[in-house]
Amino acid sequence: MKSKFLRYLLMGLFVVGILVVTGCSDNSDTAGSDSGDSGSEQTDESSEERMHLRVFAPTFTTEPPTDDSPVLKKIEDYTNKKITMEWAPNSNIDDKFNITLSSGDLPHVMMVPGKSPSFVSAVEDGAFWELGSYLEEYPNLSQANEIIMNNSSINGDIYGIPRTRDLGRNGVIIRKDWLENLSLEKPETIDDFYNMLKAFSEEDPDGNGTDDTYGMVVSKYEGPWDVMQTWFGVPNKWGEDESGELYPFFMDDNYLESLNFFKKLYDEGLVNDDFAVMDPAQWSDPVISGEAGVQVNVLDEGHRIQEKIIDANPDNADPITVIKTVEGPTGLHNLPTSGYSGMLSVSKTSVKSEEELKQVLDFLDKMNDEEAQKLAENGIEGKHYEKVDGEYQSKVKDDPALQAEVDGFNQMLMYIPEAKSIKPDSSPLRELETQLKVENEDIVVANPAESYISEVYSKKGQQLDNIILDARIKYIVGQIDEAGLEDAVERWKSSGGTEYIEEINQLHQDAQ
């Protein structure tokens, strides 16, 4: 017995020795590795115990990274997981998501495009884990923005970690060169905003001696009207009265005042008269060409417009500026975005126990670390990017093979509590946009009913929305008056709106 024990012991030591030597050899040539051999050995030894995760994510390229991608290997090492990516073309992500749902074979982590009826139904059937009670255990996930978490929730319950985006992204883009030509300051109030538009329409802001400009360009996309309503104190979709009851935004006392302002802009020719039919794809063109001076849009459209103006006229080096909002009768307000673009949900099909769930949440938490964000967004330093005199320079832009190793892993990023990957050197305008997005977070108007899933709305939502939105446009262009607005509201109520209000308030009461 003693000799047999010694023989087994010697055999075990021999095997361990081989594993150690092999581990050192395998890691000696790893690109971008800053760790010593001992750290690599630990990673190799633990790799045998790594949880295997299947991750469903969108791809924007026909050749997404393969399982052999060195970037994926680095992410696996950092998170201590074995990862198989299941890519789906973003062009039909909703269809692919629904097909995967119906198959019953769900990956561990799924990028959910939105709170579609199919996802909500799957949640109700118990296909995904509720995560809210676990998040406080994780250093990054516990710092998620409350508004964004609520927006992405289902009736207040968390069934996915939102892929966060700028909540305060909306703002006003202005031709700075026109302001300077007319000796105008950036507008601070609604009256200032109106006076600027009037000057841009009537005072030859481009100095060409021709009456060929107007104040603000709007397309058939409804967003600018929604944003500007909040300047007047109109709620974001739903308001809450003193008794805690919710009501739709168009029943707010300030709604008519905002519409009268919009109508004034239209009647005086301060906005394009074809806005109701203008293709949003051409929305920025009049600002670029020098026909219009203002656009209410996402702030980062500002630098894209500026770069196109400079491309056409390099002598006009600083033509655009941006502001976040203007002050109205109730103070500074702005309309937030939803604050997220899809969410990462954990299926109960593949993740069967609470112990496994915590391993998946550990993976998601680590993907918010700076190192993981850099890997997923930028790749491996020295291979996919480099620092030259402290400045970031990507090496993948003109190298399809390198790009195929990294492109798409950022679809697993949640940016909680913030983005930490490396960004190219910025321009003054981009820096201003970033600053205003942060400032906007203090003044955005949250929708108190954002998380509620309404059965009435799922069946009649488009019809109900069209009644109100059509009436708004018709009022602005003078096709109906106040009586017509009231008729539209009554038609909204009789078409299911009354039941919708009742249902939303019941959900709101239950949530409290």
TrEMBL record:
Pfam families: SBP_bac_1 (PF01547). The keyword GTP-binding does not apply. The keyword Transmembrane does not apply. Residues 28-41 have a biased composition (Low complexity). InterPro entries: Bact_solute-bd_prot1, SBP. Keywords: Cell membrane, Lipoprotein, Membrane, Palmitate, Signal. It comes from the Bacteria. Residues 28-49 are annotated as: Disordered. CDD domains: PBP2_AlgQ_like_1. Residues 1-23 form the signal peptide. This is Putative aldouronate transport system substrate-binding protein. It comes from Gracilibacillus orientalis. The lineage of its organism: Bacteria, Bacillati, Bacillota, Bacilli, Bacillales.
